Amino acid sequence: MRTDSNKLNMFVTNKVFIVLDLIGVLVIIAHFSNFFSDYFEGTLLTIGMTFLTLGITIPISLYFQTKQSNDSFTIINACHNYGIENLFEGRKYNKSYGRIRRSVNDAFENTNNLWLLGIAFPELLNPESASDSAAKRCLKDTRVNVEVILLNPDSEAARRRAEIEDPDEICDEGETIRNIRSTIYNHVKIIMRARLENRYGKEWKIIINEFRTSMDENDFFNKIIEAIKIRIKITELDPIAFVITTDNTLFSEQYSVGRPDVMDTTATCIGGYLPILQYKRSSCGYDFLKSHFNYVWNHENLTKDMTIELLDFINPSS
User: Which of 46, 103, 138, 139 is the most buried (most CB within 10 A)?
Assistant: First the structure.
């Protein structure tokens, strides 16, 4: 408070504004003298009030503008120091949604690796949504290594989330659990099929079947996974954030298990309301959150590898 008062005093006591105040007071005094008022009537009062108003309001205005600029600079400087290169409003807000999608699209266009950790990614992993985007091309490109961790739809964490999102149990299973199942058993399998076709061509089924009949089962699946460069795991761990990581940048949104009273009663998803932070590769945020992904990925007691199970559509008789 003392610093703010000192800044305000600095503006108010500036010589220029003191001169304006002094001129205003002198002109007003002149107005009330009988000699000058006979010549100028109300003009002197108007001029005097104008000078006095300028001398008072300009320094106050400058003070608040400077304070706002300093506050903004402090925030911008903190973001810069911590490697935050972008800040987006929540995904649920239309104004920022397009900007988020464009930034994710740009990030996917320039990477050889993609690491995803989240609950369901119902839109991102849906091949039909924005199918011509760089993000969707990246997901189908076998030159890009993809590793995905999703929430286990049968876990206690998923059930807890479903209870929060649908406290009256109106839905059979809850939107979140349905989204997870759809992502795993529909969208991911379609992406896998697209990668098989991109890797082996239109006749991929024939080529794959030749591999399978001539190889040990484990060797066969290892060969396919290595060729299409995608692995999927599910986790029992309560999600704390979604993390989208590329070689050069990382996006993260904190997950919440709270349901504020201001939420629409028809809303059955509590995700997407908090801001998304984008971190540079050379930042602590990137390092910590990428390490979080690695921790979950590498702990078998927390995860289950679904990759081979999801490749069950590769049928030698088809």
Answer: 139
Residue 2, pLDDT score: 47
CB proximity list for 63: less than 8 A, separation 6 or greater = 7, 8, 11
User: Per residue in 86-135, pLDDT tens?
Assistant: 988 878 776 777 888 899 999 999 899 999 999 999 999 998 887 788 89
Say whether 223 sits in a helix, a strand or coil.
helix
Closest C-alpha to 296, from 118, 94, 71, 155: 118
- Label residues 138-172 b or e (16+ Cβ within 10 Å = b): bbbbbebebbbbbbbbebebbeebbebbbeeeeee
* 302 within 8 A of 294, measured Cβ to Cβ: no
| DSSP class of 312 | G
Question: pLDDT tens, 251-283?
Answer: 999 988 877 777 776 666 777 778 899 999 999
d(CA 234, CA 306): 7
**Order of strands, edge to edge, in the sheet holding 113-117?**
84-88, 276-280, 249-254, 241-246, 113-117, 145-151, 230-235, 303-305
The ranges of the chain with pLDDT < 50 are: 1-2, 317-318
N-term to C-term CA, the chain:
76
